[in-house]
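Input sequence (138 aa), recorded before submission:
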Amino acid sequence: MSELKVNAALVSAYLATGIIPQARTAFEGVTFEPKAGQTWARLTNLISYREKVGMASGDSSEVSGILQIDLRYPKGVGTGPMLADADTLMRLFDPPKALIYEGQKVKIRRVQRRAISVEDIWQTVSVDVYYWANIVQP
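Predicted structure, token format:
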């Protein structure tokens, strides 16, 4: 198992929500150009902790972090759609949910919404999904 599968589990769960289509989602390391007037999202996986549980080369590792989901809307559309989508994400990632991707289990520990921010032509609300996973080494 690997951090790649942990990330894939989180991204797959986000895409399954259908809140914002994949074509309008910015993923880490992938070129993306948002279109003015269209909602879009940005996903950032912030790994905050990784520790090997044992000392042997085949021992598992614990990893935890935050999947930051930034939902971006054209400035001036109001807060209703933003808050509704944020609430939907929070419900769908509600702890103690567990995600599984190709055998890798990821446990959701907490989910929270941050304050709405406004910049240039966008207004943004971020949903933070706190997770934990045990990665078993092959």
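Checked by second reader. The chain has a mean pLDDT of 93.
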